[in-house]
Amino acid sequence: MQFLVLGLSPEQKKLTGRERVDALQKLADKANDVSQALADKGADFGAVAIKFQLSINNTGEFTQASPDPKLKQVPQLADAAFQLSAAEPTSEPIQVADGFYILHLASVVPAKPLTLEEAKPRIVEALKTTRERELLSARAAKTVHDLREALKSGDTVTSAIQKLNLKMEKLPPFTLSDDLEAKAPSAPPKNEPPDLPLIKQAVADLKPKEVTEPLPTADGIMVAVVEKRDPPDPVQGVAKRASLDERLLHGKRTLIFYEWLRERRRVAGLEASVAS
């Protein structure tokens, strides 16, 4: 697989509001020009890349179950790669957070059926993993039930967890509006769990002493409990509202722009045909 990246520069990634929209729009225009050039009959992917002064990135061989590391960080890229074919080897521009990707199918390695001996270790491992997941899911469901019953009976979160002999990790206070702030890229805090976004989403509508459903993670299953909710700070609430309004406006402008881009491509006769 080969691909082109049309992305914001490190400085442009820090932009917000109208300036960021303008920067993305310029990238979208260029991505559209590149896509039109690739759609010309007999167009060569390498020649088009040189014309637009873009570097070609190459992946190794990969499968849909195990995408190449260069594509793995953006799930829609691996999905788009397996929509390509010899008849239509080049993708439309694929939007990501900071720009666009254009994929090109360089070659396809036919799948080779495994012999029974080759497949046996995979089958054993798959059965083992499935069984472990079933046992873990059953244990997690029982934990949720027992924890809810203990909290309903009047136990505090801490005492209920101690009675059930569960391992507890207490998170520092947070607000869902923290994620609305536009911040310069930085390394996540060392003590911040990688599943914090999942936890925030799961507890968003819960009241104090309510328990989430089991939440699958990369290495197991976790359960989150809301200990308490502090009243919002009215001063910060006004500031957060202004930030939210700006993000909503930005989202609407971006949506309108891509509707315009789709219509422009339709008029130019560049819409991808649908295979029957």
Notes on the structure:
The protein is an alpha+beta fold. The chain folds into 2 domains: 2-111, Chitinase A, domain 3; 116-222, no CATH class. It is built from 8 helices and 6 strands; from the N terminus they run E-H-H-E-H-H-E-E-H-H-H-E-E-H. The chain has helices at residues 17-39, 45-51, 69-72, 75-81, 116-152, 157-163, 196-203, 234-267; strands at residues 2-7, 57-58, 94-96, 99-104, 215-217, 220-222. The protein has a 4-stranded antiparallel beta sheet. Strands 5-6 form a two-stranded antiparallel sheet. Strand 5 and strand 6 form a beta hairpin. Helix 1 (17-39) packs parallel to helix 8. It is flat and about 75 Å long. Residues 272-276 have low confidence and may be disordered.
